[in-house]
Amino acid sequence: MVMLQLPLTRLPWRYQLSPLKQGERTVAGELLDQLAADDLVLMDRGFFSYGLFWRVQGRGAFFAIRLMSGVKFKHVRQLGCK
Known about the structure:
Helix content is about 20%, strand content about 25%. The chain contains two helices and four strands. The strands form two sheets. The protein has a two-stranded antiparallel ribbon.
């Protein structure tokens, strides 16, 4: 089972049951297709996936996730004032 819940009340908002052979990230992606613009998704670090990030962004929503160890980010450019 993969579930999206309302964080303040911890009530389920959407969930999906799936066979064990289906990965949690795949199921999570299907649930993310139901997001509305300006929703905020808090994700566990086990869901660190550019594909999931892209799906959230594509819905006009936002996400926050704990950083996994060993992830290397590439500095592209400085934004804003120095």
